[in-house]
Design goal:
Belongs to the leucine-binding protein family. The protein is α/β, with parallel strands linked by helices. It contains 13 helices and 15 strands. It starts with a helix and ends with a strand.
Length: 392
């Protein structure tokens, strides 16, 4: 009996040691990627859609190999609240979370506010849809996968000339808001360069009554309104223009490619056009695969669908969010490292076919882009109009 007890004890100890050894050999390593996006504030709706693209990309590619070892990629998500005064605190939280690279943000102003913090921590950031040129200017740690506002402003100026033979444009944006004021300026300059006339106005933050601005556009005899602004204001501009019987086409940039704009335009006769980065009806292999997979992923989770605006329309910012994540993965693989400085130094070597086009960085932090998609909001859906290049 004692002999049997001894054998059982030895066997139990052996199994215990084997178990410990197995646990040690299969221990997983983790790499953290920060998601710096608005989930609240003026740009909360767009920020959620951009984040969805990153989350879906993480579900498609949840691991990365570094030095022959597999790392689980974990997203650390913070809400920058669409506010430049809140952005630094959110950015610092990601630094404290020891992320290797950051994705975002929807909204150029918050990206610029956070840039010094990421740079000081030597953590590279990859923007998805932050289009203001200043995001990457003199910021060696900031990159982005979208086109930029001088190009987008030129694209929309060319579009309204071609589409409406517009000679007079009324430009409206929020006072002091980096994205809107910058894009408004680039559009106005490009439109005037093509021989057009411009009347520009800016509304203060918190404005809810746009009736006077709409009447100013009508009185001016504008052929087109260009109103780059956050979706919360865009919804009011569209609904109040419709109530005023305004027949002037209203145009804006990428921010307006949102379910919020579709809801505001639905049931009206207003013509609303936006420039954007992607069309879900693109039939090319990479894009088509992304669209079908993303829609299935959205519809499988009620919270994801809610964050997308309650539908499974594929927003361009979701496609850009996906590309931003995949860009980070490519840079990590090239760097073969989890260190921010190494990943930043690997970024110029990134070159792959993303869902929004080829992604590479031949001229610093901005991805090379040559044209934009123009879409029309029409009774609950965005209809593809054309691909448009900028003015020559």
């Amino acid at each position: 009996m004692k002999k049997l007890l001894t054998v059982m004890i030895v066997l139990a100890m052996t199994l215990s040691l084997v178990g410990c050894g197995k646990s040690s050999n299969t221990s997983s390593k983790t790499l953290s990627i920060g998601v710096f996006e608005p989930a609240s504030g003026d740009n909360g709706a767009g920020g959620k859609q951009e984040t969805l693209g990153m989350q879906y990309a993480n579900s498609v590619t949840p691991t990365v190999a570094i030095n022959g070892e597999t790392y689980n990629v974990v997203l650390k998500i913070v809400d920058n609240q669409s506010a430049t005064d809140k952005a630094p605190t959110a950015a610092q939280q990601l630094v404290s979370d020891n992320v290797s690279v950051v994705l975002g943000s929807y909204g150029s102003g918050v990206s610029m506010a956070a840039a010094p913090i990421f740079e000081q921590a030597k953590i590279p950031a990859i923007g998805a849809s932050c289009t203001n040129p200043a995001v990457t200017q003199n910021r060696p740690y900031y990159f982005r996968v979208c086109f930029i506002d001088p190009f987008q402003g030129s694209v929309m100026a060319s579009f309204v000339k071609d589409q409406f033979n517009a000679k007079k444009a009324y430009v409206l944006n929020m006072l002091g808001e980096d994205y809107g004021s910058g894009l408004a300026t680039y559009f106005a300059n490009a439109f005037k360069k093509q021989g057009g006339e411009v009347k520009s106005e800016a509304f203060p933050e918190g404005t809810s009554d746009f009736s006077a601005y709409i009447q100013n556009a009508i009185s001016y005899g504008a052929d087109v309104i260009f109103a780059p602004s956050a979706t919360t204001y865009a919804s009011l501009i569209i609904s109040q223009a419709a109530s005023a019987g305004c027949k002037i086409p209203i145009t804006a940039g990428d921010t307006w490619e949102s379910s919020v704009i579709l809801d505001a335009q639905k049931g009206t006769n207003l013509k609303v056009y936006v420039s954007t980065f992607f069309d879900e009806n693109d039939k090319s292999g990479v894009a088509a695969t992304f669209v079908s997979g993303f829609k299935a992923w959205l519809n499988a989770d009620s919270q994801h669908k809610t964050d997308n605006g309650g539908n499974d329309i594929v927003a361009a910012v979701s496609a850009l969010g996906y590309d931003a994540y995949m860009t980070a993965i490519e840079a990590i693989k090239i760097a073969n490292s989890t260190t921010g400085e190494d990943i930043k130094n690997a970024m110029p070597k990134v070159s792959f076919d993303g869902v929004t086009g080829h992604i590479s960085f031949p001229n610093g932090g901005d991805a090379a882009k040559s044209d934009a998609f123009i879409k029309q909001a029409d009774n609950g859906v965005f209809k593809f109009v054309k691909r448009q290049s900028g003015a020559s």
